[in-house]
Amino acid sequence: MTSDDTSPPEPPVKTAGPGLLERVSVIWLLPLAALLAVLGVAWQSYAERGPLIEIGFENASGVKPGTTELRYRDVTVGLVEEVSFAPGLGHVLVKVRVDQEVAPYVDSEARFWVVRPQVTARGVSGLGTVLSGVYIEGLWDDEPGAMVERFDGLADAPLERVGQSGLHLVLRASGKSSLVEGAPILYRGIEVGRIGAPSITADGSTAQAEALIFAPHDRLINTATRFWDASGFSFSLGPSGANLDFSSVASLVSGGVTFDTMISGGAPAETGATYTVFPEEAAARESLFAGDDSETLMLSAVFEDNIAGLAVDAPVELNGLRIGRVTALNGLVDEERFGDSRVRLLTNLAIRPGRLGLDAEQGIDGAGRDAALALLRDRVGQGLRARLASASLLTGGLKIELVEQAGAEPAQIEPFGEDGLLLPTTDSEIADVSATAEGVFERINALPVEEVMAEAISLMQNTNRLIASDETRALPGNVNDLLGDARGVVGAPEIQALPGRLDGVLSDIQALVAQIAQEALAARLGATLSDASDAAQGVSDAVAGVPDLVAQLDAVAKKAEAVEIDAMAAKLTELIGTAETILAADETQALPGTLNSALEELSAVLAQLRDGGVVENATAALGSARDAADTFAAAGRDLPGLISEAEAVLTQARNTLAGYGAESGVGRDAKTALREVERAAKAVSSLARAIERNPNSLLLGR
Amino acid sequence: MRVAPMGTRVCPRCGSPLHSRDPLALQKVWAWWFLGLGCYIPANLYPMLETRTLVSSQSDTIVGGAVELAHHGNWGVAIIILVASVLIPVAKFLALAGLAIGVWRGSRRSQTRRHLLYEIVEYIGRWSMIDVFVVAILSSLVQLQALATITPGRASLFFALSVIFTMLSAQSFDSRLIWDSLGGGDGKEDLAQ
To answer: If you ran DSSP here, which 8-state letter would residue B184 be given?
Structure first.
């Protein structure tokens, strides 16, 4: 063919196969890269993921797989992957994937708890978890340890926080002291520790709680330290006044415990040591010397009498010193021991060796107890017995007394029951108040009350009869009559008229006396007469027979002078005697008494008036009146001054007015003067004008 | 303008290799397809939307969210989500795979129908992003700090990547290949090379 001849052979066409790039698209690199990336990421996450730990919880409230975090110092270090049940559904297993970097530290010491919102008296915690949901908090030390896969979660947050360490103690509540979870342990008002969740001890007698004293303060605790309850407040009223005592408001609300080391020389406390929390500081101090409840010697005593009045906590005394207390009371029937089936009173006694002076503090535990037991054994050998005795006469409460009885039957402390010790007893010495009172009542009962009463009644009847008799009844009437008679005597017209008559007699006497006074006249008359007689003598000398006349005259004068007066004097004397007898009469004598009584009545009335305040009122009224009068008087005293002042003013006014009047007069005068002057001036000016107009007029006169 | 004659391997002007059909088209389709499928798996496993409110935080995968909505009675929304996020992407994967296999092995179905299918796949591709749009809008709108926050989950990224890769896969597919099987076409030869 043509092609064979003409055309040059076909150049060797290079039909090189397509290169790798042409046969395979570059795009394939992308899925490859993606695949590698996925594998890489998967491997990395697998390689870097931490171990899975299991934490057992009571419940898993709020814990969600894939959401709930594990935190350490509030940094997320893990995530809950699964929540399941432990075999037997006993609790919940939470599986947590822990980050690789913290995993080595999560060793057997690690603790976990669920943080939930909590509202307590101490405050609010975990509030953030309300919104964000709960999380699991982990706590572990900074020492890497062997990996542990299974943990038991705590129900509550532990006492210590991250980075806190301290001394762990066990606090045991005694008596009325209380342990509150989360309550602070205060020392000098500073919180140095915290109380954990309290629980009841195995024997059920006390509550105890774990407590943590934070690190720098744990050296404050030693074996001589005593704790007491600082919650609440105490109020005491004593010679130094009222005293209100409470530690802090927070502990008032939520409870708290404080402590003090009362004496020196305690050994450092060990972790987990048990301390008793006393209700108050005084009890804590006391315990230091008396030993506390934990060191007791338990004894039993059986009493034949089964008498009401003995109660738990009743004192056990030795020589009046309280050395223990009754811890339990029971009935006891023990035929083997006592031979009959009577019910006896079995008491359990707790004796404190510390009270016996056997120091329970020193030495090993139980040393004081053994010493006390040895002492009691010895004393029982010498006759020490327990007996019931009255503790209080009023309440009838009983106590147990240990007394030494000389000549008692030999006895000893015997084993009793499983590990009990039986203290020998003796007859009770009970001052039975009720029996004594009964005796008193019996004696009162035995008194012959009935007879006495009967006699008294008959006496009263007799008296009544006497009083009711007519004679007795008439007695007041007679007395009345007697009095009436007396009154009649006193009120008789004769007696009444007596003063009048007396008056008359006296006036007579007066007249008589006047007459006697006139005797001077008579004397003068006598003189005249003697003169006359002289004259007559003279006359008689001259005239005979005159002496007879004179003698007659003398006789007349004598008669006139003496006779009547004598009789009158005798009459007067008689009258006076009568008056005297009257005055001496009883009635008259009684007159002053009556008067007196009247006066007394008057004075009583006056006293009454005074008591009634009338006098005071009157006095006050008078005082007021006087005050008023004084005021008036003062006013009156001021009045003249006022008047004079007014007068002065008036005078001044008058003067002024007068002056003014005078001035006005002057003015008037001045006015007229001025008017005159004006007129004069006018005249002068008209004159001047006239002169100006006509100077000649000066000369000419016109 | 001159068209290089059939069979020209190199552009006379610039020297670039010339193909009437992209010889690696199907490889590209498959490569993107696998990438898209690879991304679609985590898109369904990881949460699409993380809703954090004051009291709770919730993260839902695509199907989980749809189921939850259905539980609450929002059947309409649930169906829309399921259709847009599950049904369509899965259908797209199947359609693309079917088209590629049809070209590779030959198909008994008519070219017209296959072409229609391709058109639909390519058209729908851009709407597949509707899920991602919703997530983007929600997460930008609901940013109320502590009260409520919506953040896109990891799945949204993977879902977006998956959509992008499937779109690229659909674009890489040369629809002419469907018709090359009719025979007589030069492209077939080209492809053979």
So the answer is: -
Question: Is B34 within 8 Å of chain A by CB?
Answer: yes
- Calpha distance A138→A106 (Å, rounded): 9
Q: What is the domain-level CATH number for residue B33?
A: 1.20.140
What does the pLDDT look like over B107-123, one tens digit per residue?
A: 778 888 888 999 998 88
Domain that holds residue A635: 613-702
Question: Would the pTM of this model clear 0.80, i.e. be above it?
Answer: no
- C-alpha A102/C-alpha A595 separation (Å) is 125
CA of B122, closest CA in chain A: separation in Å? Answer: 20
Task: Judge whether B6 lies within some domain.
Answer: no
Residue A193 lies in a domain: yes
Cβ contact A220:A187 at 8 Å: yes
Q: What is the pLDDT of residue A340?
A: 78
**Half-sphere exposure at residue A554, Cβ-oriented, CA atoms within 13 angstroms:** 8
Cβ neighbourhood burial of A197 (10 Å; 0-12, 13-18, 19+): middle
State whether residue B192 sits within 8 Å of chain A by CB.
no
Q: Which of B89, B88, B94, B85 is nearest to B64 (CA)?
A: B85
Pair (A272, A387) in one structural domain? no
Q: Output DSSP code: residue A153.
A: -
Q: In this complex, is the C-beta atom of A67 within 8 Å of any C-beta atom belonging to chain B?
A: yes
- Yes or no: say if A171 and A257 are a contact pair by the CB < 8 Å rule: yes
Note down the domain range covering B139. 29-179
- The tally of CA atoms less than 13 A away on the side-chain side of residue A297 is 28
Q: How far apart are CA B119 and CA B6, in angstroms?
A: 28
Using CA atoms, how far apart are residues B73 and B190, in angstroms rounded to an integer? 56
Q: Is the distance from CB of B132 to CB of B156 less than 8 angstroms?
A: yes
Q: Which burial class, exposed, middle or buried, applies to A351 when counting CB atoms under 10 A from its CB (0-12, 13-18, 19+)? A: buried
| CA B60/CA B154 separation, integer angstroms | 11
**What's the pLDDT at A40?**
94
* pLDDT tens-digit readout, A430-440: 766 666 777 88
CB-based contact A407:A383 (threshold 8 Å): yes
Q: Is residue A443 part of a domain?
A: no
Q: In this predicted model, what pLDDT tens digit does every residue of A43-92 receive, in sequence order?
A: 998 888 888 899 998 888 888 888 888 988 888 898 899 899 988 888 88
Q: Choosing among B24, B162, B190, B191, which should be mutated to test the A contact, i.e. which has the most A CBs within 10 A?
A: B24
Residues A197 and A252 grouped into a single domain: yes
Q: Which chain A residue has the Cα nearest residue B31?
A: A28
**Six-digit token string for B79:** 């169906």
What H or E segment, with its residue span, contains residue A213? strand A207-214
Strands (E), A292-404: 297-303, 315-318, 321-332, 344-351, 384-390, 398-404
ipTM over 0.90: no
Q: What angle do CA A101, A106, A111 make, to 5 degrees?
A: 140
- Closest partner residue to A24 (CB to CB) among B27, B54, B55 is B27
CA distance linking residue A152 with residue A559, whole number of Å: 163
